[in-house]
Amino acid sequence: MKCRYARVASAICAAVLCPHANATEVFNMEGYGPISRGMGGIGVAYDIGSAAMMLNPATLGLMPEGKHISIGLDVVNTDIKVTNTATGESVHSGKHGSNNGPYFAPELAFVYRRNPYAFGVGVFAEGGVGTQYGSSSFLSRTTTNSVDTGLDNFSRLLVLRIPFSAAYNVTDKLTVGGSLDVVWTALNVGMLLDASQIGGLAAANRVSGTLVPALLGIPGLSGGHIRFSRDGLVGGGADAWGVAGKLGMTYQLAPSTRIGVAYSSKTAVGDLRGNATLNAVSATAGNIPVSGTIVVRNFQMPAQFSLGISHDITDNLTVAADYQRIFWASTMKNINIGFTSSGNGANLNISLPQNYRDTNVFGVGASYRINSKWTFRGGVRYAQEAIPGDSLLAVIPATPTTHLSTGASYAIGKDDILDFALSLALQKTLTNPGGTNSSVPIRTEHSQLNAVIAYRKRF
């Protein structure tokens, strides 16, 4: 069953030329579909089309009757700079290998709506992260013994959802909905840890395994580099499948005012597994590679609770606002990685502290229909910073918090609509003074421009 799902998802992603999406709110996209994205990511109490399956499936019951097909594409262009504040050296993410941007993510959905029911199925990228720093920056040089390793530092994460959703109009005012999501998580990582970082992790009982004595016995040990990667358009060096669910409702308070509530569960995805190479970096012997397998344990996307309201000021002008509480603390306390040598079965376990905070997210947007052809949108979105500075990893700089967005829809015909939106993540700076997650003090500067376009047809 999992293999069949993998082939289906891979074929869909390849069809739209899908590498992997870079996230804007930790690992989450800042809204799903052009309607939501153009209005600051709202959608709990507003009709955002088939993308409702990613936020509040009850709003599928707000769509017009008929069969709806939606095909879309997200394009994410990042600007990430990491600076060693002790030396002034810096490196930009991008154009160093197959993990660089821009990043692409698919949207494909079908909805059948007939009062009082609506049913939908789709494929959406929930989010991810992507960096590529190459092999010649200060990130590839150990602090201990100052060894230029020539080893890449990168990341690429995709969380793909295949929701099966339904909505039911209980009354003229109340609609309920739910979704069962098949979730695929795929991850590439290349990361150098200095000997000082490994020592700090060991002192905190975050390093264990039968490989530890052998590594400590290497003369001139300066660091260790772990790499697992799949360089194709789809997938990662380690991946796994799982499930998640959503429940939601909307209620018409007044003819022009609607509220909505939704809850999305924490994912239940298996441990990510794949092949990997561990390089022990020696100041005297160079890089000593060990082949084996990798497991990233209990890597989940968090639960979230959402509230929303929409209000029609006039027949042509609507405003909407959402609040979300995202429970990152329960999923991103640590990143737990295990490596097992294919030669003798010796193993190494590392637990990298993350200590993410739960966040509050606020989105406000407006939609104005100019005429029967054109509708314009705008919005703003703010999310609290989830990542403590001393937990920042250069390969996971998912730090932007504020987004400005705009978008529009053009009705090609009565039942054919082209939607598009732009979202600007304002530059966010975060510093790590150095320690367990960085051997040197670093500062990241991260901004990005996201675009999404989709074609909708009703028949």
Automatic annotation (TrEMBL):
It is found in: Cell outer membrane. Transmembrane segments: none annotated. This is Protein TbuX. GO terms for molecular function: long-chain fatty acid transporting porin activity. Keywords: Cell outer membrane, Membrane, Plasmid, Signal, Transmembrane, Transmembrane beta strand. It comes from Cupriavidus necator (strain ATCC 43291 / DSM 13513 / CCUG 52238 / LMG 8453 / N-1) (Ralstonia eutropha). Belongs to the OmpP1/FadL family. Pfam families: Toluene_X. SUPFAM superfamilies: Porins. The keyword Transferase does not apply.
